[in-house]
Design goal:
two-stranded antiparallel ribbon
Length: 291
């Protein structure tokens, strides 16, 4: 029987040490601290063989998140499968913006409605429902398989979210929202990254629009005002080189207070703005009488 240390030493020949530890901890249903404390522990052959299989699959390029079936997002573990995009730290910017936008309103006893477009694993919608108790959160995705994963995550984390199978706004029941967030497919079809690394294994429909990377963003920005309450906000993630285009689209659609946020690498990664509030004009007669 091989020990924890022996298995990790063999795996490190083809994988980074950290990845090897995560995979073995998953196989043994332990944490990495346990591995360190039990490096001389002999393991059953079936566990060793399962670990070796995962190591080989990871070495071939399969994402660790899919191999262990989970990924952390905003401090919580989410179930992930090949049917959904793997949650990324950059997307947490959308949560931060939502909390800044609605935190004061909800904290003072107000209510708010949030819509998450293209929910995937549900990480955005569920996180917002848990971070902003009392808000009404809806989430849509065109993929029934992705919605099944999102519903599992909501049930597991005890979050109240209404899920809808819809091509963006197309099948959504009529209503208005105080905030819309979205992580649409924004990778251009010609981008070589689609054939490299983890992206090779992620759902293509969640990555690219099969065009210039902006068609989904154009649609979301153009249709969002009809679904936003006055003063409501729209924020969406986009590509590293799409900041200027995102700002132009928001401006053309009539959004005000346009805002853009950088990720940890200093790249503009999220853009958004607010739907203008109606200006109530004062009747001329009333104005004269009040002088």
């Amino acid at each position: 029987m091989r020990t924890v240390a022996a298995l990790l030493a063999a795996a490190r020949k083809i994988l980074p040490a950290g990845e090897a530890r995560v995979l073995l901890a998953h196989v043994l249903d332990r944490n990495t601290a346990w591995l360190e404390a039990h490096c001389d522990e002999p393991l059953a052959e079936h566990a060793a063989l399962r670990f070796q299989t995962l190591v080989e699959r990871r070495a071939a390029g399969e994402p660790t998140a899919y191999l262990i079936g989970r990924r952390e997002f905003y401090g919580r573990d989410f179930i992930v499968t090949p049917e959904v995009l793997i949650p990324r730290p950059e997307t947490e910017l959308l949560v931060d913006l939502a909390l800044e936008t609605l935190g004061g309103k909800v904290g003072s006893g107000g209510t708010a409605r949030i819509l998450d477009l293209g929910t995937g694993s549900g990480c955005l919608a569920i996180t917002l429902a848990l971070e902003l108790p009392g808000v009404q959160v809806s989430a849509v995705d065109v993929s029934a398989a992705a919605l099944a994963v999102a519903r599992r995550n909501a049930a597991r984390l005890d979050a109240e979210v209404g899920f809808f199978e819809s091509d963006w706004f197309a099948s959504l029941p009529p209503q208005s929202f105080d905030l819309i967030v979205a992580n649409p497919p924004y990778v251009a079809a010609s981008d070589p990254h689609l054939t490299q690394g983890d992206l090779r294994f992620e759902p293509v429909v969640a990555l690219t629009d099969h065009a210039d990377g902006l068609s989904a963003i154009r649609r979301v920005v153009a249709e969002a005002p009809r679904w936003l309450a006055e003063g409501g906000g729209l924020f969406f993630e986009h590509g590293w080189d799409q900041g200027d285009a995102a700002r132009d689209l928001l401006s053309a659609a009539g959004f005000e207070a346009i805002e853009q946020r950088q990720d940890l690498a200093g790249i503009v990664r999220v853009s958004g703005g607010r739907k203008p509030q109606s200006v109530v004009s004062v009747p001329l007669v009333s104005a004269v009488n009040n002088q």
